[in-house]
Amino acid sequence: MKHTKGPWLAKGFSVTKSNGFKITQQRPAGAGDWEGVDRIWEADAKLIAAAPELLDIASALLTALCDCTDNYKYTQQKIQAQSIIDKATK
């Protein structure tokens, strides 16, 4: 599965590329601020915007962990990293 290449930017409730291409919008059009929900939508947009960079660093860290001379060290972390990468890419 391919995704839109980063970097992505959080702008209020929207996530866009630097050229303005919209990736997603977290806040439904016409929605009011339901007791602070706007803050949650903005936080979600920031997390989504970081996704491409998080995927890149997860892949790099997995490679570094697999290059360790002790193959049994960090086994659980390797499994978790691979699972997260698979979740994002398959």
The radius of gyration is 17 Å
Main sheet attributes: strand count, strand direction, barrel closure: 3 strands, antiparallel
Q: Could you say which structural class the secondary elements and strand pairing correspond to?
A: alpha+beta
Portion in beta strands: 5-15%
| Helix and strand pattern | EEEHHH
Please estimate the helix content. Answer: 40-55%
The geometry reads as: elongated
- Widest sheet, order of strands: 1-2-3
Q: How many E strands?
A: 3
Total number of domains: 2
Ends: how far apart? Answer: 5 Å
How many helix segments?
Answer: 3
Instruction: Summarize model confidence as the mean pLDDT.
Output: 84
**Multimerization status:** single chain
Description:
The chain is of the alpha+beta class and 90 residues long. It folds into two domains: 1-49, no CATH class; 51-90. The chain is 49% helix and 13% strand. The chain is built from three helices and three strands, in the order βββααα. It has helices spanning 37-49, 51-66, 75-89, and strands at residues 8-11, 14-17, 22-25. It has a three-stranded antiparallel sheet, with helices on one face. β1 and β2 (14-17) form a beta hairpin. α2 packs antiparallel against α3. It is elongated. The chain starts with 7 loop residues before the first strand and ends with a helix.
Topology (elements, then pairings):
Layout: E1 8-11, E2 14-17, E3 22-25, H1 37-49, H2 51-66, H3 75-89
Antiparallel strand pairs: 1-2, 2-3
Q: Short description, anyone?
A:
The protein is α+β, with helices and mostly antiparallel strands and 90 residues long.
